Structure formats: C-alpha cells, structure tokens
Amino acid sequence: MTTTVNFTGSVDRELLKRAKVIAAKSDTSINALFNAELRYLVETFEAAEGTGNQNFRTLLDFSLGRVGDADALTALGIDSQEDLFLLMAQAHLPMPRIPERQTQQMVASLNALMV
Predict the structure, then answer these.
(1) What number of other Cβ atoms are within 10 A of residue 94's Cβ?
(2) How far apart are CA 63 and CA 78, in angstroms?
(3) pTM for this prediction
C-alpha cells in the first residue's frame, strides 16, 4: 500500500499553465503527471545507480546544466552531439540548461558589444 503525503513546491506560472493544458488533453491531473514523471526520474536514477551505471547521472547533470556537452560526451564515451541528444530523449530528460559559467560569458560578450 502506497502512502501519499502533501508537500508544497513552487513552479513557474507559465509552466503551470502549460501543464494544465497537457493534463486536460490527457484527461488526468497535474498531480498525476507530476507523480508519474517524478517516479520515472527516481526509479531510473536508482536502477542505474544500483548497477553502477553512471550514464543517467551524467545525462541528468547535463540536463540541469551542471556539466557541459564536451564533458558529457567524454563521460559517456560518445563523440556526437546528436547521439547525446538521442540519449537525452531516450532517458526522458529535458534538453539542457546552459551552465551558469557559459551563461555569464554570453552576457559579458553581449554587454561588450554594447560599449
């Protein structure tokens, strides 16, 4: 028997609107969508970790912008960004955020153009 607990979280308003549309089109609730995605993430991560496979961790870190594409390619032993993005899709992970360092470099470059 599964016990549920309530928790409080925050989400971007626009993302919540989009999630409501998906839930309505899928004849389900946002709660059910969230539970399914969180369960998938946790179970996939635990299964990979249980076998000593660090690939999912690498893909998750890439998705969250913790590592860049070059580091992810090296860690995964692949040489193609296309293969990296295919692995991201197969793992049901969102496309990556740009790492903070890279974002700051881009901002600095754009600011330098305005001088």
Answers:
(1) 10
(2) 16
(3) 0.59
